[in-house]
Amino acid sequence: MPQLKAKDIRKMSPEERRERLRELRIELIRLRGMLASGSPVENPNRIKEIKRTIARILTVERELSK
Asked: Long-range contacts: 52-58, Cβ < 8 Å, 24+?
């Protein structure tokens, strides 16, 4: 899955941003659960990428709410 850039996030509708944020949080919970249970994660860097994308979405949301 390609990384979302801020300009792409700004082009999304508010509903699309909220849905994408929800999907990313669910995926992050799943990956963290896999780590906690001791099973191997297929791509450990994916956790870092998801966290950064969540932060980008939240940043854009705050910018647009002003």
From this structure: 52/3, 53/3, 53/4, 53/24, 54/21, 54/24, 54/25, 54/28, 56/4, 56/5, 56/6, 56/9, 57/4, 57/9, 57/17, 57/20, 57/21, 57/24, 58/21
